[in-house]
């Protein structure tokens, strides 16, 4: 049943003009960022060769910047794709019908989250496919950092999707749901600026900042603590959405 709901969510995305507008804009920006970052990397490498300096490492010069760019695009665009996950069901009045069906609430939550995660993952890796293809054709790229960056993006998609699903369950307005998702995700991201301070704020940043827990993946470093934190965040957000739907079921 979970896969049935996920498939329904995927089909709804492919039939939505708004989703395709967001996807087209997203892919265009991905291509633009790839072109700009690749241009900067090639220019730096060329200038380094002219001055007989050590070449800029591929990891820090290309893979990590592209990973950071992809992460920022996810922060900007995910709220637009998650805002109607449950808010549209509430606004249209179909949510009570959905909850009165024999489908378990947790199946609805997991199915919608899985469908969105698959859709966004396809978008990200369609746009990001230029990177590994270019690196493989023109050189011998380090595969481990590329795999780490891919894992980091998948986990970030899962986190933002779960957060957006929770926000969408809290409001019948798609705009309000998008604002909640965007402000919360950006707040957790920018919390990292307090990392090098002192006292409880620094500790809060190290333990609660989304940026701190995902940035190492772009450098090819996979920390078990970061993976556990990200999966825990997904679990808590999905649990919150489940509790919200359960309260609707028993009204």
Order of helices and strands: HHHHHHHHHHHH
Poorly predicted ranges (pLDDT <50, ≥5 residues)?
A: none
Q: Give the distance, in angstroms, between the N- and C-terminal Cα atoms.
A: 24 Å
Beta-strand fraction estimate: under 5%
Structural class: mainly alpha
The outline comes out as globular
Q: Count the E strands.
A: 0
Radius of gyration: 20 Å
Tell me about this structure.
The chain has 251 residues and is mainly α. The protein has one domain. Helix content is 80%, strand content 0%. The chain has helices at residues 2-14, 17-50, 58-82, 87-92, 95-99, 105-128, 130-138, 143-170, 174-190, 200-208, 210-214, 224-249. Helix 1 (2-14) crosses helix 6 and helix 2 (17-50) crosses helix 6. The protein starts with a helix and ends with a helix.
Short description:
It contains twelve helices and no strands. The chain has helices at residues 2-14, 17-50, 58-82, 87-92, 95-99, 105-128, 130-138, 143-170, 174-190, 200-208, 210-214, 224-249.
List keywords for this structure.
single chain; 251 residues; mainly alpha; 12 helices; globular
Write the layout of secondary structure elements.
Elements: H1 2-14, H2 17-50, H3 58-82, H4 87-92, H5 95-99, H6 105-128, H7 130-138, H8 143-170, H9 174-190, H10 200-208, H11 210-214, H12 224-249
């Amino acid at each position: 049943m979970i896969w049935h709901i996920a498939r329904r969510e995927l089909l709804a995305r492919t039939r939505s003009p708004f989703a395709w507008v967001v996807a087209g804009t997203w892919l265009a920006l991905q291509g633009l960022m790839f072109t700009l970052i690749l241009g900067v990397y090639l220019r730096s490498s060329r200038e380094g060769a002219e001055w007989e300096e050590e070449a800029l490492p591929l990891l820090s010069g290309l893979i990590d910047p592209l990973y950071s760019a992809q992460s920022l695009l996810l922060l900007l665009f995910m709220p637009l794709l998650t805002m109607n996950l449950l808010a549209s069901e509430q606004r249209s009045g179909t949510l009570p019908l959905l909850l009165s069906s024999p489908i378990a609430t947790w199946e609805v939550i997991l199915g919608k989250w899985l469908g969105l995660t698959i859709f966004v993952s396809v978008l990200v890796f369609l746009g990001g496919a230029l990177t590994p293809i270019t690196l493989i054709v023109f050189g011998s790229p380090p595969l481990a950092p590329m795999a780490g960056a891919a894992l980091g993006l998948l986990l970030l998609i899962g986190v933002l999707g779960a957060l957006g699903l929770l926000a969408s369950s809290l409001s019948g307005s798609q705009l309000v749901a998008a604002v909640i998702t965007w402000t919360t995700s950006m707040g957790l991201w920018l919390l990292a600026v307090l990392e090098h301070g002192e006292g409880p704020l620094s500790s809060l940043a190290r333990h609660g900042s989304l940026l701190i827990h995902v940035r190492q993946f772009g450098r090819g470093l996979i920390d078990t603590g970061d993976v556990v934190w990200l999966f825990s965040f997904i679990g808590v957000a999905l649990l919150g959405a489940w509790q919200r739907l359960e309260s609707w079921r028993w009204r």
